[in-house]
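# step 3/5: fold
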Amino acid sequence: MFPRLLEIGSFHVASYGLFVALGYLAGILLLKRYREEMGLSEDRFWTLIYAVFFGAVLGGKLMFIALNWGQFSSGQLHLIRDFRYGFVFYGGFIGCLASGAWYARRLGVPFFANADYFALAGAVGHAIGRLGCLAAGCCHGAPTTLPWAITFRDPDCLVPDSLLGRPLHPSQLYEVLGNLLIAGAVWKLLAKRAEGRVAAGTPFLVYIPLYALLRFLVEFTRADDRGGFLLGLSPAQWTAVLLVAAALAAWVLRRRPRLAGA
């Protein structure tokens, strides 16, 4: 594809970074639209954005280091020099949850009610960010004979040489389309919530299993290094299972009368 969108001499604009930035921007603009409904002042809104952003960066990087510790310990990868590379989505997602929960507790902001809006923004931003993965060749698919296969030929992309020129699953596009469908479902639930037809927290708790199912299935089509397997499942698939269990537990607990106003 196009790992470098623009190149002038030694200066270049990486497609991956650009699309990730656009994904964050789109998510922030969506959240900005719902700021008053979230009950946040302008200052509190931006404090929350910064907290969640740094939680995402830190969580995504820590999980990448954990999954690739061998490469860091051998010196193949360096923490500072290679900081801009290697962020794991689920690590970033967990980091967002942790920082968002901390912020909500500190300022008395309802966590689940506001998480509904972040689910919508996250799904839209994630879809845009995956276009960066497609352009860079990361998170690439396995060889396939399906008619919608895509082929990478640029030697600067992140697809290994052994797979260049071979038709591959468009795993990145599977996630783009899946995230857009999830965003549509969350948006409809937000509309129903505004009408009082569903409880606060429902869109967020629906988003988690929907994306987990999407990611669980897409993992079977990927051929990049995802940190090893246990019982035939990748770390992302195990994380998906655990998050679904956590979402179901939260759903059950929130239905108890004593937590009805959480």
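# step 4/5: annotate
The chain is about 60% helix and 5% strand.
# step 5/5: archive (pending)
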